[in-house]
Design goal:
Layout lengths: L1 H12 L5 H13 L6 H14 L3 E5 L5 H9 L4 E6 L2 H13 L7 E5 L2 H4 L8 E6 L6 H11 E10 L15 H15 L3 E6 L5 E6 L2
Parallel strand pairs: 1-2, 1-4, 2-3, 4-5
Antiparallel strand pairs: 5-7, 6-7
């Protein structure tokens, strides 16, 4: 496993973040808000670019790190980002503005995902990112699969949950829920599933056409 750890560190170290994302990451650290790793962010950008995404929903804005990476890959996309903390949105808005993304292209909705997502249009989004409350993952995933268009993508950062999911001795609530979700997704004919070990795991779910 030591060689794998070295490889993962190498991947993270080789990722160059734009200045505006580095600034958002620094503020995230100051405020104690966990952001996706640089290499995870680069993968988000790559997937958004490969999809040529036009409509993206992000559950869990934070200070804007993941949203900035998504728009790095799909700069013309319309991003809707949901977070329960108004202060997070205030900070994130500044970073989106600094990156040159107009307010008309970045819609920030303050509220609980359980209240906001039911009002969103079905099959209307190319990409949905779930990075909100880990305890609401199953509910958010259900909504995400409803909102994404056929052939669209749902991404779940922290999908290996601080490396606890691969460890059978770890059985806390979030870890057990992620294991169950991975099993259900793997066995479902309605989706294609891949798991990347980047960061602390990135679940990649593509809905069947």
């Amino acid at each position: 496993m030591a060689s794998k750890d070295l490889s993962w560190k190498y991947v993270e170290d080789q990722t160059v973040e734009p200045d505006v994302i580095r600034a958002a990451r620094a503020q995230s650290l100051e405020l104690g808000v966990e952001a996706v790793s640089p290499a995870t962010g680069a993968q988000l950008a790559l997937i958004a670019a490969a999809l040529d995404a036009e409509a993206i929903i992000e559950i869990g804005t934070g200070i804007g790190v993941s949203g900035l990476w998504l728009l790095q890959g799909a700069p013309d996309a319309q991003l809707t980002s949901i977070d329960v903390e108004a202060d997070h949105h205030e900070a994130a808005r500044r970073h989106f503005t600094d990156a040159g993304h107009p307010a008309t292209k970045v819609r920030l909705i303050t509220g609980r995902s359980s209240d906001v997502l039911p009002r969103m249009n079905e099959r209307s989004y190319d990409l949905v990112l779930i990075d909100g409350d880990a305890h609401a993952l199953a509910e958010n995933l259900e909504h995400a699969l409803r909102l994404v268009r056929p052939g669209g993508t749902v991404l779940v950062p922290h999908g290996l949950w601080r490396d606890t999911v691969p460890d059978p001795a770890k059985r806390d609530g979030v870890t057990a829920e992620l294991r169950a979700l991975i099993t259900d997704l793997r066995e479902s004919p309605a989706v294609h599933l891949a798991i990347s070990p980047v960061g602390d795991g990135l679940l990649q779910i593509v809905t069947a056409r």
